[in-house]
Amino acid sequence: MIVYPAMDLMGGRVVRLRQGRFDEATDYSADPESGLRAFAVAGAEWAHVVDLDGARAGEPVQHERIAQLARGLPLKLQVGGGVRSREHVEHLLDSGVERVVVGSVAVRAPEMVRDWIAAFGAERITLALDVRMTAAGPQVAVSGWTEVTDASLWTVADYFPGARHLLLTDIARDGELAGPNFALLDDAVNRLPQLEVQASGGVSSLVDIERLTTSGVIVGKALWEGRVQLEDAIARARA
């Protein structure tokens, strides 16, 4: 399992949101470059970086800063937030980003995203599907998690047969430090064997990481608040 330490950027600062709410942001007063270098020193090979300003604006805001970070760091970056066009994807990949995360656009313009996967390769694109659990099952949400669609996780995922990577978030678990939705994640691993699933939302301890059956895990708030040490998380994920 790959551990992706997470860094969310807003106004050039490192923050974490609770369930995607911008009015509930915790500012960690950390320098992004220093933080990413610390990830590398701890043994991380990847980092997950989100342009929160871009996600809110619907277009890139901090991609130039992220491009600078990508060029100067010994880490592979998986980057999302505000990616809405082929040009956005190209710019990030050309700047040294290893993998680009696409979320709402995959639901709103799936044919376009299928074209991106074909053009850039399945290893360069990560589908990010954020869900709210309903009586009908996991329903995909878009627009910064504010709009729940009538599309199920399974229907949307099946529309991308050429995809390789899926970042799956149970919105209700995000930023809560209450543990991941293991049932959902196990179901995704079993029902979507063609995808390398990354668990996102709720990781609070090394025990949580041990219980996961996914190919990857995003560790954010637990890391920044000192509940999990990155070195220990990486060691546990490799065990």
UniProtKB/TrEMBL annotation:
GO biological process: L-histidine biosynthetic process; L-tryptophan biosynthetic process
EC numbers for this chain: 5.3.1.16
Cited Gene3D superfamilies: Aldolase class I
Cellular component annotations (GO), alphabetically ordered: cytoplasm
Compartmental location: Cytoplasm
Pathway info: Amino-acid biosynthesis; L-histidine biosynthesis; L-histidine from 5-phospho-alpha-D-ribose 1-diphosphate: step 4/9
Catalytic activity: 1-(5-phospho-beta-D-ribosyl)-5-[(5-phospho-beta-D-ribosylamino)methylideneamino]imidazole-4-carboxamide = 5-[(5-phospho-1-deoxy-D-ribulos-1-ylimino)methylamino]-1-(5-phospho-beta-D-ribosyl)imidazole-4-carboxamide
A molecular function (GO) term: 1-(5-phosphoribosyl)-5-[(5-phosphoribosylamino)methylideneamino]imidazole-4-carboxamide isomerase activity
Domain of life: Bacteria
Keywords recorded for this protein, A-Z: Amino-acid biosynthesis, Cytoplasm, Histidine biosynthesis, Isomerase
Location (main, coarse): cytoplasm
Cited PANTHER family: 1-(5-PHOSPHORIBOSYL)-5-[(5-PHOSPHORIBOSYLAMINO)METHYLIDENEAMINO] IMIDAZOLE-4-CARBOXAMIDE ISOMERASE
Family stated for the protein in its record: Belongs to the HisA/HisF family.
Name this protein carries in UniProt: 1-(5-phosphoribosyl)-5-[(5-phosphoribosylamino)methylideneamino] imidazole-4-carboxamide isomerase
Lineage: Bacteria, Pseudomonadati, Pseudomonadota, Alphaproteobacteria, Sphingomonadales
Gene: hisA
